[in-house]
Please model this.
Amino acid sequence: QLTVRELVMVSAESENKIETIKDTPVFRLRDHLLPLVSLQELLKLEPAQGSASRSDHKYIVVAQLGAYLF
Model:
């Protein structure tokens, strides 16, 4: 919890978009280009029931360890 800086919601309608650079998903947050890791894939979780209606919304947890944002 100490490393969490902010939570960002991204959707098709939002001005901030997830981009791909060399097959790697990244998110541009102000002056930082942050690599993205899917916690669902990393933890091998099944999609939640009823999540299809919210599939266009993604939540990004921005964390900081020392001077590094991720």
Observations:
- The CA atoms of residues 32 and 69 lie 8 Å apart.
- Strands lie at 4-10, 18-21, 24-29, 32-35, 58-65, 68-69.
- The first strand starts at residue 4 and ends at 10.
